């Protein structure tokens, strides 16, 4: 692929996990937008949210997204990246966008097992609050995610199966 491949989707949809595996299998560089921002600003995402708030984070996220133009890499975005500014249109102009779709319950069952403090938007919620929050926010964000050029419905697939499915689509798209 001559352009970046952007993985998009809600928190817990597997962008970081699948992105790393996909990049390894496709022998392409891997960039995680969140990790890139953390390296550049020298603090964690929760620290940045606490000091500067979400609006400033979104401006920063857009700025670093734009630095990825022209990179021939697998790029895992943050869950909110496509949903602010004109980021989704920008992503579609600059690369192939792939939406990792999953149900609210499926996302919840993954996120409940992770360290939620590392995702400031989810921090401090009870399990019940978390499911309601994911359901509501996913509905709000879906109009952005659904603009992706390719959607992968995950159902209960294993990580390796999803990676193979994405690869089969990418091969077709690049022909
Ligand atoms: N297909 C999958 N099946 C089971 N667990 C998964 C799958 N994809 C991701 N996970 C797990 O879900 C959690 C969130 O994954 P992550 O890649 O960080 O998501 P994102 O970057 O989209 O927020 C991690 O604990 C990861 O191991
Ligand atoms: O959905 C969001 O608004 C966010 C998702 C996070 O990335 P992941 O989707 O990789 O967790 C990270 O960018 C930040 O905590 C905000
Ligand atoms: Mg991630």
UniProtKB/TrEMBL annotation:
It is found in: Cytoplasm. Transmembrane segments: none annotated. InterPro entries: P-loop_NTPase, Shikimate/glucono_kinase, Shikimate_kinase/TSH1. It catalyses: shikimate + ATP = 3-phosphoshikimate + ADP + H(+). Pfam families: SKI. Its EC number is 2.7.1.71. Monomer. PANTHER family: SHIKIMATE KINASE, SHIKIMATE KINASE 1, CHLOROPLASTIC. Belongs to the shikimate kinase family. This is Shikimate kinase. The gene is aroK.
């Amino acid at each position: 692929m001559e352009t970046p491949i952007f993985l998009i989707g809600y928190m817990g949809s597997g962008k970081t996990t699948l992105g790393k595996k996909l990049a390894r299998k496709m022998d392409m560089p891997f960039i995680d937008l969140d990790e890139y921002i953390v390296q550049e600003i020298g603090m964690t995402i929760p620290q940045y949210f606490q000091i500067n708030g979400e609006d400033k984070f979104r401006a920063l996220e857009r700025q670093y997204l734009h630095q990825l133009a022209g990179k021939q890499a697998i790029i895992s975005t943050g869950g909110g990246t496509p949903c602010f500014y004109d980021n989704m249109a920008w992503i579609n102009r600059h690369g192939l966008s792939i939406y990792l779709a999953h149900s609210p319950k499926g996302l919840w069952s993954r996120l409940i097992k992770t360290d939620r403090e590392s995702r400031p938007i989810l921090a401090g919620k009870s399990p019940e609050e978390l499911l309601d929050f994911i359901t509501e926010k996913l509905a709000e964000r879906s109009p952005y995610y659904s603009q992706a050029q390719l959607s992968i419905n995950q159902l209960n697939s294993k990580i390796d199966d999803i990676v193979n499915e994405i690869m089969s689509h990418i091969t077709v798209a690049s022909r």
